[in-house]
Design a protein that fits this description.
Layout: E1 4-8, H1 14-25, H2 41-53, E2 57-64, E3 67-77, E4 82-90, H3 95-109, E5 116-122, H4 126-134, E6 138-139, E7 143-149, E8 162-163, H5 169-179, H6 187-193, E9 198-205, E10 208-216, E11 223-231, H7 240-255, E12 260-266, H8 270-278, E13 282-293
Parallel strand pairs: 4-5, 11-12
Antiparallel strand pairs: 1-2, 2-3, 3-4, 5-13, 6-13, 7-12, 7-13, 8-9, 9-10, 10-11
């Protein structure tokens, strides 16, 4: 093999990069869910191009002559100062030498104001999981990726749900922050997206939000998401979760013409998994999140 060189990927590299990522990700032992979660080549190419053009996607390529033999990337969220890591992907050559070098090269091009880095790997990707552990990443809870297409859809009544209005904003923010204190969207960001790419449904008593669901179809993608479902602790086991999920599904399929809906749920939430399966969702992948936070210097 020729000498290995590393360079930052450009938009012109996306088609071949996507092709290689999908090829290795079809095998669970080399699958990174941030890079690929079952998207078609066309959809993944469009997602990468949009992120590159927005200046939010950064990728390092390992090359042997004209051939790309490895890659690792990160998608940066400037509001949260978080990086969603892709890979490491090794297409050819030795994992033990390529993966650490890809990581070190990637860190040099990521925004310096990042304060947290997150990876999400298939539970069978032992090389990747061991790699992140050795680099100081903390292992989270196993999370399952579910999918629903139109043919499996089961209609459910959702009479208790309405779209969120300004009357509910304050209560929604309070409940969302209680239930999802460390996630990829802030409550304020979701309020700004509501009515466009996102739709928030609530079960409410006057101004007080008892539960909510957040549906999203971003960048005209064919694959939509139910991103959040949350119920106040005192209001659980009343059937609100099923209704909020059903209303989110209705909006995505009927109003936004989505062809497929995805959602994720932690392994420990057995009741939630049963809820999703009861309306037609099927397990797609199981992943393990790993994260690392920037260490703040001690104040003297």
């Amino acid at each position: 093999m020729q000498n290995i060189t590393f360079r930052q990927a450009g938009i012109e590299d996306i088609p071949l990069l996507v092709q290689n990522i999908i090829f290795v990700s079809l095998k669970p032992n080399s699958h990174c869910l941030h890079s690929w979660a079952g998207d078609s080549p066309a959809d993944l190419t469009a997602d990468f191009q949009a992120a590159f053009e927005a200046g939010e996607m950064f990728y390092i390529l390992a090359c042997s002559g004209p051939c790309i033999i490895g890659a690792m990337g990160g998608e940066f969220d400037p509001e949260l100062e978080r990086v969603w890591l892709h890979g490491p992907h090794v297409f050819a050559g030795a994992w033990s030498s390529l993966a650490p070098n890809l990581y070190e090269e990637l860190l040099q091009i990521l925004p310096p104001n990042a304060t947290r880095w997150d990876a999400f790997l298939n539970v069978k990707n032992n090389n990747g999981i061991d790699f992140y552990r050795k680099h100081g990443y903390t292992q989270g809870t196993v999370t399952h990726d579910y999918q629903l297409n139109r043919s499996r859809r089961i209609d459910c009544p959702a009479d208790a749900c309405t779209k969120l209005t300004s009357l509910h904003h304050a209560s929604f923010v309070t409940l969302f922050d209680q239930l999802f204190p460390d996630t990829y969207y802030s409550a304020q960001a979701l309020l700004q997206l509501h009515g466009g790419s996102h739709c928030i449904y609530v079960v409410a008593e006057g101004e007080r939000v008892l539960g909510f669901s957040v549906a999203a179809l971003e960048d005209d993608a064919a694959k939509a998401e139910v991103q959040f479902i949350g119920i106040a602790e005192t209001e659980r086991n009343k059937g609100y979760g099923r209704q909020l999920l059903a209303r989110a599904v209705d909006w995505l399929f009927d109003e936004k013409a989505a062809t497929e809906i995805a959602l994720t749920v932690e392994d420990s939430l057995t009741n939630a998994r049963g809820l999703y399966e009861s309306v037609g969702f099927m397990l797609n992948f199981s992943g393990l999140p790993l994260s690392k936070k920037k260490v703040k210097p001690l104040e003297l």
